[in-house]
Write a structure and sequence with these properties.
alpha/beta; six-stranded parallel beta sheet
C-alpha cells in the first residue's frame, strides 16, 4: 500500500480546519500525566474515574478554551479524525481513511488533511481509537510516517491488533506505543482525562469516549447502535452514559449516519436467520461477500455453513488477515476442520462449499470482482451458484456494486442482496436510538 497513489483529500481545507467548537473553562485543576507507556508494550487500563458531580461544578473562569476541530468524518462517510486541543495539549480521536468512488480515477485511498497535526507535532499527546474499521484507523500509518515520531495509541484489544498488523506493511521508523483499554478504563493524558465505555457496533471492541479537561466535558459516542441481542453479548453501556450525564456533558458528539431513518436498527442476530435459510437451501456453491472487519457477520457465516454441513473457503487478503487476528484473540469461534483451502474445492461437491470473500463494495481488485469476470486464480462462479452480498453499498459505491451484480447474473448466479433478503443490517443507530442517546445524556 505504501507505493499506491494517495489522494490527500482537500475537502477539509484550512477554513474548515480553523472552524472549532470552543468551551469555556470550568475548573482550574488539571489531570495527572499517565506514565505507563513503555516502548512496544501494551498496557491495560481498567480503573474508574471520579469526576465531580455536575451539581457541584466550579464556576467558569476565563482560562483556556477547548478547541474541537474535525479533520474528517463530517462531510463524507469516512476519514474520521477529530482534534481536541486544550492549551498546549492535543489529543486525536480516530485517524481513518475513505475509499474512492468512481469519480476518483486512478486513486486508491483518500486521506483526511491532517496538516494541522503536522504543524503542531509536539502538542500531540496520544491517538485514541473508538474501533477498528478502516474509516477510523486506516490513516494511522500515513500519519505516523509524516510525523516521524513515536506516538502512544489507545484502543481495545482488537483495534490495536488490527493497527499493528497494518503497520507491518509500512516502514515506520518510530514505532508507536500501544495501550489496551477496556470498558470503563480511564486514561489520564496530560490535561485530558478520558473514560472509555462499550458500545455495540458492527465490530467487536467498539468504544465511546467521555473526554474531560479543565474547559468542560465532551461525550463522543463513536459509531454505535442499541442492539439488545448482540452476537457477542456486549451491549452499549447505559450505566456509564447515565453517570456521564450526572457529571455534566457540555457537548455531545454523536454518530448520525442513520439519522434520516426512523425507528430502530435491526439486530445483527436477524441476519443469521436469513443466512442459515439461504445457505441451507442453496443447490450449489454459496458465495458470501462481506466486510472483512465485520467479525460478527463472519461468525454467523461459519455457523450457518456448519449447520448446512458445508466447508468454508476464505479468499481476499484482508478477510484472511482479520479472521486470523480475531481467531487468535478469541473473538471468533471456528473449528479448524471447517475451513478448507481454495485448491481443495475440486475435491468437494459444490453443494458442500461456502466461499467467504471480500468485495461487498464492488472494489475492482477484490475477490468478488475477480470472481465476477472469471479472473480469480483458484475459484470460479458457475450457473446455479448463489451469491450473497452481505452489505449495503457505501454512498458513492452503488455503481460499482451494480456492475458486479450484473456480471454475476451474466454468469448464471442467483443473487441475495439487501433489497430482497435480510442479509445485512446496519451497525449504526437510527433516529429512535439517537433520541434515546440524547435523552440519556440530557
Amino acid at each position: 500500500m505504501a507505493n499506491e497513489e494517495i489522494k490527500r483529500s482537500k475537502s477539509n481545507n484550512r477554513t474548515r480546519r480553523k472552524r472549532s467548537v470552543s468551551l469555556s473553562a470550568n475548573s482550574d485543576s488539571s489531570t495527572s500525566t499517565n506514565t505507563r507507556s513503555s516502548e512496544n508494550k501494551k498496557n491495560t487500563f481498567n480503573k474508574k474515574t471520579n469526576f465531580s458531580n455536575k451539581t457541584n461544578r466550579k464556576p467558569r473562569r476565563n482560562l483556556s478554551k477547548l478547541k474541537i476541530i474535525p479533520l474528517g468524518g463530517l462531510d463524507a462517510i469516512g476519514k474520521n479524525m477529530t482534534v481536541f486541543e486544550y492549551d498546549t495539549d492535543i489529543i486525536l480521536v480516530d485517524a481513518g481513511l475513505m475509499f474512492p468512488d468512481d469519480e476518483h480515477i486512478g486513486i486508491d485511498l483518500v486521506l483526511p488533511d491532517y496538516t494541522y497535526i503536522l504543524e503542531k507535532p509536539n502538542k500531540l499527546k496520544g491517538i485514541f481509537i473508538t474501533h477498528g474499521h478502516e474509516d477510523h484507523i486506516g490513516a494511522i500509518p500515513y500519519l505516523l510516517q509524516d510525523l516521524d515520531m513515536s506516538v502512544p495509541i489507545y484502543g481495545s484489544k482488537l483495534s490495536l491488533a488490527m493497527i499493528e498488523s497494518k503497520l507491518e506493511e509500512f516502514s515506520i521508523k518510530n514505532k508507536p506505543t500501544y495501550h489496551e483499554v477496556q470498558n470503563e478504563s480511564v486514561i489520564n493524558c496530560s490535561q485530558f482525562s478520558l473514560e472509555f465505555f462499550s458500545v455495540n457496533h458492527s465490530i467487536p471492541g467498539a468504544m465511546g469516549i467521555f473526554i474531560h479537561c479543565p474547559a468542560g466535558n465532551v461525550l463522543h459516542t463513536g459509531d454505535f447502535k442499541l442492539d439488545q441481542t448482540p452476537i457477542d453479548g456486549v451491549r452499549t453501556n447505559f450505566q456509564a452514559i447515565n453517570r456521564f450525564s450526572e457529571k455534566g456533558v457540555d457537548l455531545l458528539l454523536s454518530d448520525s449516519t442513520n439519522a434520516n431513518k426512523t425507528e430502530f436498527t435491526k439486530s445483527e442476530a436477524e441476519v443469521g436467520v436469513a443466512l442459515r435459510h439461504i445457505i441451507k437451501n442453496a443447490k450449489q456453491k454459496v458465495v458470501v461477500a462481506a466486510f472483512s472487519s465485520h467479525i460478527h457477520r463472519v461468525q454467523q457465516v461459519f455457523d450457518a455453513a456448519k449447520l448446512a454441513r458445508r466447508k468454508v473457503v476464505v479468499t481476499g487478503r484482508s478477510m484472511l488477515t482479520n479472521i486470523r487476528i480475531a481467531k487468535e484473540l478469541g473473538y471468533l469461534d471456528i473449528d479448524d476442520d471447517s475451513v478448507i483451502d481454495a485448491y481443495q474445492c475440486s475435491e468437494i461437491p459444490p453443494h458442500r462449499i461456502v466461499i467467504l470473500c471480500t468485495g461487498s463494495q464492488g472494489e475492482p481488485l477484490s475477490a468478488l470482482s475477480r470472481l465476477s469476470v472469471g479472473e480469480h486464480k483458484t475459484l470460479e462462479i458457475g450457473k446455479g451458484d448463489t451469491v450473497i452480498i452481505s452489505a449495503t453499498p457505501v454512498p458513492g459505491n452503488e455503481k460499482m456494486v451494480a456492475e458486479v451484480i450484473n456480471k454475476l447474473v451474466a454468469l448464471g448466479a442467483a443473487g441475495a442482496y439487501k433489497k430482497f433478503e435480510e442479509v445485512h443490517v446496519s451497525g449504526h443507530a437510527k433516529r429512535a436510538e439517537l433520541t434515546i442517546m440524547q435523552t440519556l445524556v440530557n
